[in-house]
Write a structure and sequence with these properties.
Elements: E1 32-35, E2 38-42, E3 53-57, E4 60-63, H1 69-76, H2 95-108, E5 115-117, E6 131-132, E7 135-137, H3 149-157, H4 173-176, E8 208-214, E9 221-224, E10 240-243, E11 252-253, E12 257-259
Parallel strand pairs: 8-11
Antiparallel strand pairs: 1-4, 2-3, 4-12, 5-7, 6-7, 8-9, 9-10
């Protein structure tokens, strides 16, 4: 399903101090948060948007902020965003742009890329749900990747530290997210609202985030988290919708994870 929006262009001031360097001697960057795995009730409590069910996820690491324009440009040499600003989330990126970024970042840091191009030789060796267009996910790789939908919602809810908030980190969207009524219809620098229980920012609002998962039986990919243009409903931790993976709009961004 294609969606179209009229997007104005804006500029932003760059606070450089919010992007930590790698931890000394550590395996993961210092802006990655460890999420201990567990079982949780996923979905809409009232089952108006999606069905509530038990879901179990393993432990993983997730970046505490959406990929910024500076980070994206340093890895890819590009910045497709409509709302320019080094500390704003990169947007106007397709699902395929996001997984290519993951691969390039993995290669830059000497890790095994999680996504591989499908070839004539390997196309019949993978499960359908691991295949995204011309790409397939290697579950054994240790590089950067997009979160699954279950990982994303579990982290947005606060994992094992969850207080059961409606939005990620609060029952008041004004405290935790940029959305249509408070954003001025533009994106904002990451990490300028309150974080959730895990210390994750902008899981509600700012830009929608691509997830590695199909919407039902379609070829559309899941997006989560709400955005600066839309209703507060989109920012609920359980709200889910979809986009064509080739689409790139100013409300579409992403964040990255790595396995334990």
């Amino acid at each position: 399903m294609k969606k179209f929006f009229i997007i104005p262009v804006a500029l932003a001031i760059i606070p450089m101090a919010i992007f930590p360097e790698k931890s000394a001697g550590g395996t993961f960057p210092s802006d990655f948060v460890f999420v201990e795995g567990g079982t949780f009730c996923m979905g809409d409590p009232e089952e108006k948007i999606n069905q509530r069910h038990q879901e179990t996820v393993g432990s993983f690491y997730i970046c505490n902020h959406e990929v910024t324009q500076r980070e994206y440009r340093e890895v890819t040499g590009k910045n497709p965003s409509s709302f320019k600003g080094d500390s704003r989330p990169v947007e106007s990126v397709s699902f395929y742009d996001a997984i290519e970024y993951c691969n390039k970042l993995s290669e830059k840091e000497g890790l095994m890329p999680c996504y591989k191009k499908i070839t004539q030789e390997n196309k019949n060796t993978f499960k359908k749900n691991d295949i995204y267009g011309e790409w397939v996910q290697d579950k054994n790789a240790d590089g950067y990747r997009l979160p699954t939908e279950a990982e994303w919602e579990y982290a947005a809810r606060g994992g094992k530290k969850s207080n059961g908030y409606a939005y990620s980190g609060s029952n008041e969207i004004e405290e935790t997210g940029w959305y249509g009524s408070n954003s001025g219809e533009k994106s904002h620098d990451v990490m300028t609202k309150s974080p959730n229980e895990l210390g994750l920012y902008d899981m509600s609002g700012n830009v929608f985030e691509w997830c590695a998962g199909f919407f039902g039986k379609s070829n559309d990919m899941i997006i989560r988290g709400g955005n600066f243009y839309g209703s507060r409903i989109y920012c609920l931790t359980y709200y889910r919708t979809w986009f064509d993976p080739a689409d790139s709009h100013a409300m579409l961004g992403f964040r990255v994870v790595r396995g334990k």
